[in-house]
Amino acid sequence: MKTRSITTLAVGLLxxxxxxxxxxxxxxxxxxxxxPQPAQSPKAAPQPKAAPKPAGKPKPKPKPVSKPAAEKxxxxxxxxxxxxxxxxxxxxxxxxxxxxxxxxxxxxxxxIPELTDADREAARPPAHDHPVHDNTVHSKVMFxxxxxxxxxxxxxxxxxxxxxxxxxxxxxxxRSEGERVDDRTEAADLEVMYGRPIARWWDVVGGVRHDxxxxxxxxxxxxxxxxxxxxxxxxxxxxxxxxSGRTAARIEAEYELLLTNRLILQPLVExxxxxxxxxxxxxxxxxxxxxxxxRLRYEVHRKFAPYIGVVHERAFGDTADFRRALGEDKxxxxxxxxxxxxx
Length: 343
Hints:
It comes from Noviluteimonas gilva. This protein has helices spanning 2-28, 76-103, 117-123, 317-325, and strands spanning 138-151, 154-166, 171-181, 184-199, 202-213, 218-229, 233-242, 247-254, 257-258, 263-274, 286-298, 304-315, 331-342. The chain has a domain at 138-342: Beta Barrel (Porin). The chain has four helices and 13 strands. It has a twelve-stranded antiparallel beta barrel with strand order 1-2-3-4-5-6-7-8-10-11-12-13.
């Protein structure tokens, strides 16, 4: 009986001690954050069932703590592919930058040594150097104006042409112009000159001129220039010296305006001057006559071009008085049609 009492007392002590220890562990253990689940399965692992609480005094319920969102599983194949794309993109842009730098105008592929005084001296042309000219003999004949017109007292024909033969440095020039009305020569002259270049696009010419009409024939010494002025004006300027101190000058300028590759508009102005009156030929001192023409030609071939145009001529000063004394008008306007040909 005494032994049963001792055993009962011992069991009671053991039960009370275990309950107290279990109560102490639940109250004093801190709350821990739930660990993320393994990435192999998106589903959370089933939580183990809580052990039944021992009988005793009920404890206060802790406040609910929000669980962190489970991390998304990492796909290693995707991460490796994006990394590979980034590396490839980086290499591509680096190659583009290198190619651009190599193709830039200012980029130097190989180093260029600095210029020295010896290099500059070697590149300088020799003093008194002249361009090399071709000594082959060339020639050209051109009728710039070969036209017909209707005059007050008959049909008219006018011409203006030139020809040359020679090399690049030495040429023999022939020039002529004149007018016939009703089978009668109203004016005609011929010039024979030697030409030599004095500048780019310019030749100096010198020789003689012979006037057939008007009046009695006469001769002149001539000197002048032929060339292309700025803005592509073709210019002929010649001064003449005749017997008994007579002087004269002629200036002619023309321009070719390309409307199309074959349709060309050509304005032309010619002015004649005399040093003193010459009543026998009907010319006065100063500006004697001026002619302005506008011709439109179509180049069927570069060497053959028919044209139509309008020409106005006017006399000035004593020349106009001489014409009025002969019953002629001091000015004349006519429609012309002709051909421009060269070979």
